[in-house]
Amino acid sequence: MKTSDFDYSLPPELIAQTPAEPRDQSRLMVLRRSDGSIEHHRFSEIIDFLQPTDVLVLNDTRVIPARLKAHKGSGGKVEILLLRRLEPGLWEALVKPSKRVAVGDKVELVSTQPVTKGETAFVEVLERKEEGVRVVRFADEALVEALGQIPLPPYIHDYHGDRERYQTVYSREKGSVATPTAGLHFTPGLLSQIREKGIDLVFVTLHVGLDTFRPIREEDPRQHHIHHEFGVLTPEAAARLRNAKVDGYRIVCVGTTAVRLLEQAALASEGNEEVKPFQGWADLFILPGHHFRLVDSMITNFHLPRSTLLMLVSAFAGKDLVSSAYREAIREHYRFYSFGDAMLIL
């Protein structure tokens, strides 16, 4: 297995720059693992493929305004992109230009809004890590919410629409720096229809970091170090999933983040068939050959080449089948990545 096995060529015009309106009018490819068949639908039709006994698992994380502008005392401009919260007030962040910001430096946050000047507007660099990553400390972490901007992915250029479209309609737990994109297709009305059909909705939390989306540089993907993300599977959610497994009901995950959290929780159960609650850091790197313990079906977007997400989907559905589906998606002009279309893998 090589990283280059998960590479593909995508015409730039298929990278979605704006979301579908309304949300559930994005396209939906239905991929059946049993026979390799592919169907083309609208996302609003997904209810036709869900069964009344299904459990639909959704990640309720909410994207924080993680992109911050600052300046040094000399006047030089600095950009801070938060990656991962280590503890209150302490973050791993990308700092640009990294060479001009040393350990011990303090930079002052910039805002277009009136704020009280003073010590609370400063961020201190505590530690230097690889690839421009720094550990930074906020004197007042509330300034992240007050002064930051939602960090759209770099392949989305000049989007000036409603930034709430980069949030799921059920987001509530603040902590992500990138959205769990498979959930962007759901509307309140569609969720109501799903509930009315008798499908159980279970909410979990995994705070998404940007490293999840980065291409893998190592040719052997097993040499790649995946960054960990904080997740929570509550006792109530674990009990509902446990009951579903006992009753033989399908567990359908919305997005790779929900898949990772459930499989991490299963791994933490140390081989016990019982689904246990989980709270902690998820660092499970799912590659082809992984034995899925909890997930029976998944909804996902179309992912970047050479990414950990594409490898996870390939582990779930089979590399050859996923490669075939991606070729079909390109032929049929599906829209790719965060604002793009969706795939249901049955």
Assign the CATH topology of the largest domain: QueA-like
Q: Based on CA inertia axes, which overall geometry fits? A: globular
Query: For this structure, what is the CATH class of the largest domain?
Result: Alpha Beta
Rg from alpha-carbon coordinates: 21 Å
Give the mean pLDDT. 91
From the 3D coordinates, which CATH architecture of the largest domain would you assign?
3-Layer(aba) Sandwich
Structural class: alpha/beta
> Could you state the oligomeric state of the chains shown?
single chain
In DSSP terms (H or I, runs of 4 or more residues), the helix count works out at 6
Task: Detail the topology: elements first, then pairings.
Layout lengths: L26 E5 L6 E5 L12 E5 L1 E3 L3 E5 L5 E11 L2 E7 L9 E4 L12 E7 L4 E6 L3 H6 L25 E4 L11 H9 L3 E7 L22 E5 L1 H13 L3 E4 L1 H13 L9 E5 L14 E5 L6 H10 L1 H13 L10 E4 L1
